[in-house]
Amino acid sequence: MTTIEFNYKLTGLQKHLEYFAKKLTNNNDDAQDLLQETFLKALTFKDKFADSTNLKAWLFTIMKNIFINNYRRNVRVKTIIDTSDNLYHINSSSTYTSISPESDISEKEILREIGNLSDDHRIPFEMHTHGFKYKEIAEELEISIGTVKSRIFFTRKKLMASLKDFNN
């Protein structure tokens, strides 16, 4: 396929590519940027395109891959790496809000209500809020996963009822 034929077919698929870009980005400006990047990459690597293959599918794949790479790049930029011994990856916004006196009192009330629960319900609930998986809690407490799930569910319901002032 000659360069002129390739360019003609490429521009002929522009409407389809614009629609796909808008579906991916949900933003007209981002869709136009994605379309331009796709055209640039297609023109740069037109020698990699085999004449016997589907140009539309090839272009859609390029666009999808550019979108995914941009998304991953944006997620990486927002990731903060903690350099402590455990090397946790923390995703958080750059803004930090200080603790207000009201939220400090609210936290104490919530912790008091959690402390008032029976050990059968409190321990699985606290383990779950500290990041343990249901399976890990079940193994640690030597109970079934179903029991863990139901205890956590009922604990949430009890806390919501006793802390109804905090509900929106």
Structure commentary:
The protein has helices at 3-12, 14-25, 28-44, 55-77, 101-115, 119-129, 134-141, 145-162; strands at residues 79-81, 89-91. β1 (79-81) and β2 (89-91) form a beta hairpin. The chain folds into two domains: 3-79, Rna Polymerase Sigma Factor, Chain: A (Orthogonal Bundle); 101-166, Arc Repressor Mutant, subunit A (Orthogonal Bundle), CATH 1.10.10.10. With 168 residues, it is mainly α. The mean pLDDT is 83. The protein contains eight helices and two strands; from the N terminus they run ααααββαααα. The protein has a two-stranded antiparallel sheet. Helices cover 68% and strands 4% of the residues.
Short key terms for the protein model shown above:
168 residues; 2 domains; Rna Polymerase Sigma Factor, Chain: A; elongated; 4% strand; 68% helix; 8 helices; two-stranded antiparallel sheet; mainly alpha; Arc Repressor Mutant, subunit A
The description of the largest β-sheet is: 2 strands, antiparallel
The string of secondary-structure elements, in order, is HHHHEEHHHH
CATH topology descriptor of the largest domain: Rna Polymerase Sigma Factor, Chain: A
Please list the strands of the largest sheet in the order they lie side by side: 1-2
**CATH homologous superfamily name of the largest domain?**
RNA polymerase sigma factor, region 2, helix turn helix motif
Helix content: 55-70%
Structural domain count: 2
Radius of gyration: 27 Å
Terminal CA distance reads 63 Å
Mean pLDDT equals: 83
Number of strands: 2
